[in-house]
Predict the structure.
Amino acid sequence: MQFIKLEKVKDGKYLKNYELTYLNKAGKEKKYEIVSRRELKSVEDIGQKASGLSIAAVNGDRLLLLREFRMGINRSIYNLCAGMLEEGETIEECAARELYEETGLTVKKIIDILPASYAAVAISDTMTHIVFAQAEGSFQDHTSDNEMIEAGFYTREEVAALLRQEKFSSRAQMTAYFFSKGLFPSLN
């Protein structure tokens, strides 16, 4: 594939829409639409900077899951605590802020932080980190009026049952699956 041009088609409050033009392997023009959370000036900017994170948090032998309403699919699903990095904020600071804002919990210990990965490669260049953490405290609602989030800790057995009965985001589903099988980063 040979890149030809990048053109912004819409500048939304949170997402920017772009049309990419390529020459495909048959030598014909192919137009492709993507969204980005960032301003893209050139093809070199695409997918180059992480914009947020997801938090896979545990408390003892229980996994934190959020049941939240997502407007994009008009339903509630199970998800991980997640959010956007603010200007000048470290990954650790963002994880602590988002965990508190969405659940009222605090970070007891960061277990591991994975390098940024692509969140939705078919439609976006968005990259996010996965933060594995121990969480503590009590649940409190600090969310905005535009968020409906119920946070809870679940045992391996409860998570296994949810996986068969409920809808999940893909990252939360994968995290929940590995947690239910006892394949979660060491808590020591």
In short: The CA atoms of residues 4 and 22 lie 5 Å apart.
